[in-house]
Each structure stands twice: as structure tokens, then as C-alpha cells.
Write a structure and sequence with these properties.
five-stranded mixed beta sheet; about 25% strand; globular
Length: about 550
């Protein structure tokens, strides 16, 4: 078994080894996390010190799906929801270490079943109520009540959750029935961000209307689903993360998020001064950005890269040789070179290369159409009259359900469609809305589902691939894989856990459970007047330190 790859330092994209520190030290996790690449959103030399004030105008490439961080999954949604909620811990994007936020200290039992957090005093939610240990209990209990259909990531992080006990006003003890070595890192995510009782008592749908009560540096003042979200800074905010560059209130007076789905319109709005920053700046936008003295801020996403997850009960995808043939049929470097740009990378495993425990499996994913054809020949699929293979009267054809959650998705899949046709496979594209894709996921109504999932912890494989998890492959148990993904939760030794995560990546590909394409990178266009817009460890935006100079 090969050891997970250790990523060397780079002058363009900084990737450093890290460990998640705990009081016991037994749950440390070494690996790599993302830091900002390219222009990291720092301050121009002539800009002077940070200036409070101003409203940042931000163009989202897609509408936020919900105002609730617990139910958020897409980057565009998390850019908005992260700003209104604080987490127990924060993960340093440079070192990967967990730093204090709402929890000023914490400890874990040796068997990783009990976690105790001591909270900061004098923290309040936006409705004026105080943060207490009961707030932690109510938040975690409510996420479990939301269920995996509404809060899949949060429920995955709280696997085997027994409950939370308020030991005293500011001490919360979280217990699990089985070891949960990934939980500490999960407490840094927005999905487990702490919300007030006015929100946690509501049903799922009412938590999506912009009325969320958090303790974060910004609060909602308006929320129009599929149109816009308006935030203002929280007066008196004084309990920021130890990762933040300053303490006290945010510099910005507010943030206006507007949905601008057309790439050209987003870029034009930025270069004309109507917006201060935009999502998903594409390669063709770079000359316009440079001409307007704007910058491109980039960060590669850790977690699961973009790929197709096959439903093993549907059509030709029931055949393991078909799934294996899809791996070498795709030219991933061509996807990057043709559709994306130098800030992106081809996928080389079931995890992105900046994820702790990543194992480089590029040899298994090398473009080799001759091998793809040989595997299909071996499975009995022969070329038909139109070039698409057939077997027993059945065409080698399947669909892919996807959304434009990333602006490049359609163009990437159109090129994958062409590549697969060269080996006799027909891929049918099915572009749907976020609401429809959620319904299709829950009903398992797809041949393949195209997506990515971001997290700076290799445990994300468990969320995506175990039978006990979302089981989007719609498969029976595979002990050689499921036992490893469950077993890494109880691995107290960091090297042992990383080794298990490395083996899991091999077995995901061996079983044809994931057909990777490209690693996602965030590409943010920013006006020259915007400074210190930063990425978290998970490559999502954090606006707390951002500030505007004169427009």
C-alpha cells in the first residue's frame, strides 16, 4: 500500500503539512490544506491601513440555495451564510491547525467519543440572547432533526451523535456512541456553526427565509431567494476567530450579494465599477480584469474533486467493466487546458490534492482510450452503426444530472461527452436547478450525478461513499471499502488514519464509484479598491478582514 502523498511547498499555491491539535494529541491529522494562490487578496502597497466603512457589492454566479448555514452546500451559498454564523473552532488555512473561536479551549477523550468545549463569555446572538452551552446542544440537536436530506454534511459530521450536555453555562460536552476522530475539524465548518434558539427551533423551510439568528460578524437585513441577500455588520462584535487578522467589528458596513449568472455580465459589472467582486471569473475574463486594474484571487478546494457518481442500479452502469472503462476514457488535462485555465488542475484521485490524506492515483486515471476500448470489448459491448456500442440490443448510453453551481460545469461535461463518444459511449447531459437536483438525489433518480464536495478533511469520503452515508451509488455494502471508511473514525494515530484514507481512495476508484474530472478552484475577480478578502481553509470566502479604499 502506497503512503499518502506529501505535497511540497510551492511559490504560487502554498500547501503545508498540518495537524489538528487536541489536548490529548491523539486525534491529530497531518496532511495538506489550501491557502490562497495567485493574488491572495492582500492589501496593495499604496492602499494604506484598513479603513472601516463602505458596502461591498458582490456578484454571485448562482443563487444561494438557503440562508441557513446548516443546510448550505454550494460555494455560492456558503459565501453568504458563513458571514452570519461563528463556529466553535476555526481552521488556520496556512497551517491547518484548529484555533479558538466560540470555544476558547477544548479537549477530547482518548477514544474520540467525548469532546468538551469551554465557550467564550459575553458572546451574544444577533437577537441579543447569550451564547451558552445550551446553544451548542440546541444547534447540534436541530441539525440531527433536519436529517440527512436537508443537512447532509452536518449529519455526516455528527454521525453516531448521542447528545450534548451543558456541564455548566459555558461548558458543553458532546458525546458519540462510537469514535469520531473527524469531529473536531468538523466544528470549524459553517454547517456546524452555532445558531440561536430562535432559529434552531424552526423547521427546515423556515430556516431558509433570511431570519437566521447567529453570532457572526454580519447579520441579514434582506434575503430574496434566487435574487439577492443583504448583510450589515454586527455592531459590538468582539469575539472573532484567532485566525482573523484583527479583532473587534468587521471593517465593512455591509455586503450586497446579487445573483448574476452570466459570466460576461458579471465581468462587465466588475470592470465598469458596478460590482466590487465576482465569483467564477473564467479564463476569457482575465484580459478584461487586467485592463481594469482588477485582480484574480484563487484558491484550490480541498475535498472531493468534480466527478460523476454512477448509480449502480441503472442501465450499463451496473457493469463494473463499463465503470472502469470510463476512467481512462477521459482526458482530464484537456478539460483543464480547453475549458478552465492554469489555476485549475486535473483530478488525480478521489480526493483533491490539497486534502489531508490525498493519494496520487494519476497513473490509474491516465488518458488511455485504447485501454477503455479494450475493457468495453472485454465486457461484450461492440460498436454500433452510429459508433455507440451496444450489447444485447442495449445502447451504451447514460445520463448525467448536474447544475451550474460552478460556471464551467456545462462546458466541461460537453467536452467529456465528446471524449466518451470516441470510445463508443453516449453521455446525455441533464442540466437541472438546485432544487431539482436535491429532489433527484433524494429519490436516487439519475444515472450519474456530477458534483464536488469541499472539506479540508479526508473523512469527506465517508460522507460521499459509505452505504451508511448518502449512498449516492445506490449500492450494496463493500466491506473492503466501508470498513476502512468507518474505521478511520476510530484511528487515534494520525499516520494510521491517513493510511486508511489513502487506501479508501484506491478502492473507490477500483470499484468505479467515482469518475473524477477536475479539481475545483475558486477564482474571484476583485476590484483594485477591495483589500484583504480572504479564503478559509476550505477555500470559502471570509469577509471579516475585507475593506474598501476609495472607489
Amino acid at each position: 500500500m502506497r503512503r499518502p502523498r506529501r505535497i511540497p511547498r510551492s511559490t504560487t499555491v502554498i500547501r503545508t503539512r498540518h495537524r489538528l491539535a487536541t489536548v490529548t494529541g491523539l486525534l491529530a491529522l497531518a496532511g495538506t490544506v489550501v491557502a490562497c494562490g495567485g493574488d491572495a487578496g492582500g492589501t496593495r502597497a499604496d492602499a494604506g491601513p484598513p479603513r472601516p466603512g463602505g458596502t461591498l457589492r458582490y456578484g454571485l454566479s448562482q443563487a444561494a440555495s438557503c440562508s441557513d448555514p446548516a443546510q448550505a452546500g454550494s460555494n455560492q451559498t456558503l459565501y453568504v451564510t458563513r458571514q452570519i454564523v461563528d463556529s466553535l473552532t476555526d481552521q488556520d488555512p496556512a497551517s491547518g491547525a484548529l484555533r479558538p473561536w466560540l470555544a476558547r479551549s477544548w479537549e477530547a477523550s482518548p477514544d474520540a467519543t467525548v469532546f468538551t468545549f469551554r465557550l467564550a463569555d459575553d458572546v451574544t446572538f444577533s437577537d441579543g440572547t447569550a451564547l451558552t452551552a445550551e446553544s451548542v446542544r440546541e444547534t447540534f440537536d436541530s441539525i440531527v432533526r433536519l436529517g440527512a436530506a436537508k443537512a447532509p454534511l452536518g449529519n455526516g459530521y455528527l454521525v453516531n451523535y448521542v447528545g450534548t450536555t451543558a456541564v455548566d453555562r459555558l461548558t458543553a460536552r458532546v458525546e458519540f456512541s462510537k469514535p469520531n476522530a473527524q469531529f473536531l475539524q468538523a466544528t470549524s465548518t459553517p454547517q456546524l456553526g452555532i445558531q440561536g434558539a430562535a432559529t434552531t427551533a424552526k423547521p427546515a423551510e423556515q430556516r431558509c427565509d433570511g431570519s437566521n439568528v447567529g453570532s457572526g460578524p454580519f447579520v441579514y437585513t434582506a434575503y430574496r431567494q434566487d435574487v439577492s441577500a443583504t448583510l450589515r455588520k454586527r455592531a459590538g462584535y468582539a469575539w472573532g476567530s484567532a485566525v482573523f487578522a484583527h479583532q473587534g467589528e468587521a471593517y465593512l458596513d455591509g455586503i450586497e450579494f446579487t445573483v448574476v449568472p452570466e459570466s460576461g455580465v458579471r465581468t462587465g459589472s466588475l470592470t465598469s465599477g458596478q460590482l466590487d467582486a465576482i465569483s467564477d471569473a473564467l479564463p476569457q475574463d482575465l484580459p478584461l480584469l487586467e485592463a481594469a486594474d482588477a485582480r484574480l484571487l484563487t484558491a484550490p478546494n480541498p475535498g472531493i474533486p468534480f466527478g460523476l457518481q454512477p448509480n449502480l442500479t441503472r442501465g450499463p452502469l451496473r457493469d463494473p467493466l463499463v465503470r472502469q472503462a470510463l476512467l481512462p476514457a477521459i482526458d482530464r488535462q484537456q478539460l483543464v487546458d480547453t475549458v478552465l485555465g492554469p489555476q485549475f488542475k486535473p483530478a488525480t484521485s478521489a480526493l483533491a490534492s490539497t486534502t489531508p490524506g490525498y493519494q496520487n492515483l494519476s497513473a490509474r486515471l491516465a488518458h488511455d482510450p485504447a485501454r477503455a476500448r479494450a475493457l468495453l470489448d472485454q465486457a461484450g459491448w461492440v460498436p454500433g452503426g452510429d459508433g455507440i456500442r451496444v450489447r444485447g440490443g442495449e445502447r451504451l448510453s447514460f445520463g448525467v444530472v448536474f447544475t451550474q453551481v460552478f460556471a464551467g460545469n456545462k462546458a466541461i461535461l460537453e467536452l467529456v461527452q465528446q471524449q466518451l463518444r470516441q470510445v463508443g459511449v453516449e453521455l446525455r447531459l441533464d442540466l437541472v436547478s438546485l432544487a431539482e437536483t436535491t429532489a433527484r438525489q433524494n429519490a436516487k433518480d439519475y444515472d450519474t450525478y456530477y458534483y464536488n464536495t469541499t472539506r479540508a478533511d479526508g473523512d469527506i469520503l465517508r460522507n460521499a461513499f459509505t452505504v451508511q452515508g448518502r449512498n449516492l451509488n445506490v449500492r450494496e455494502r463493500i466491506p473492503a471499502l466501508d470498513d476502512i471508511l468507518e474505521g478511520q473514525l476510530s484511528a487515534g494515530d494520525q499516520a494510521a488514519r491517513l493510511a486508511l484514507i489513502g487506501t479508501a481512495q484506491e478502492r473507490v476508484l477500483d470499484a468505479g464509484l467515482w469518475i473524477p474530472t477536475v479539481e475545483l478552484s475558486q477564482a474571484i475577480g476583485a476590484a483594485h479598491t477591495l483589500h484583504d478578502l480572504k479564503f478559509e481553509a476550505s477555500a470559502r470566502l471570509q469577509f471579516f478582514d475585507a475593506w474598501l479604499s476609495e472607489r
